[in-house]
Design a protein that fits this description.
This protein is mainly α. It contains 23 helices and no strands.
Length: 414
Amino acid sequence: MIILTPINYEELAYNYITEALKNSDNVLYKEWCLIFATIERPLLSNINAVSLANDVARKEYGQMDAASIQAEFTRQLENYKNTARSSFQSSNRTSQIELIVGAGVDRTQAEQMNETQLSSAYDVVLDTISNNRTTAFNNGSASDKVNLTVDLKTSNSEKVRYNAARVLGEMGDSKAVEPLIDVLKHDKNGSVRLYAARALGELGDSKATIHLIESLREDRNVDVRVRAARALGRLGGEIVVEPLVEALNDENPQVCITATDALIEIGDVATDALMESLDHEKVNVRCDATRALGEIGNKKAVDKVINMLYDEWVNVRIYAVTSLGKLNDTKAVPALIDVMKNRNENELVRAGAAAALGVLRDQRALLPLRELIMEAEELGELEDTALKSFKKIMAANWQSIPGAAAQKKPANAF
């Protein structure tokens, strides 16, 4: 475990670092000196920090694969930060100031800090140390990236392969795209393909789009299809709209939900295809398409969504009233008033219509809302929603409502 050491003892630090660089067998020297990589006048160059970090990891973790080493290294780094922070907070003020000054903060400035400011300054030191070590792994060691790619392609362990795929995505190395595509297409393990799809989405390279579409359409593993849909949402573009709309009809509801969210993320380019899906024979497709159109917010969909107020399925109608509020077009006001007033309609749909009228804030809804409230013997969910919407509309339009505006006094009035 890395031990927090007073980092203002630069001469001592230099001695330890020199010894660590010479003594390849003593991992304790190497581990100890890594925290000196980020002081204001670094005694340890980045390239040496990288070398030492890798030596420490491999010495401690033996023959682990590269991805597992990175994960364990990150875990220990977090443990180190937590331990260091706890040690700092339990130290006296003098020791805290010395630690901050040793990290490069001006002594006069440090001595003027209160307890909270000292803790914040020390958090910055810890974050700098953490970032330096993370950068050392991600950017400084090409050999680790090569090792990850080798693990991805050749390891007999599915855990090693999916960890390699995961870390390659997190590292953002564009050279990993082709190996990840190959794994997505050919690896026999679903978890490995899942992490390959996720990594390709994180890398954001359009070369992966066609292959992710194939996985969305053809992979028999539900989790792979879910990850492929999510990745396509991140990649975006018109080419992904049709396969994602098709996925609204997937046999697994989680794939449908993820495809819907992906279409929402893509935005306006998906609007026309989603409007066509409102006529689909399956109710879940109509529900998802109606929800997505509301979230995207393109007003060209208003008329089609208004039609969904009369769908035979109540779930579709619930999504329709909500989406009409989000589309924010007062063209929907008359239809929403009719739905709210319809005593034969489902209460949730009527309440949703009342809520949407409150969002639209159109004066035409005031009288119907008032009548609904006044006719009720007691306020239920519907009437309570109507009252809230009535107040919202009044607040938005009070100056234009007859009798509501304040009257000016004559000039000669006292």
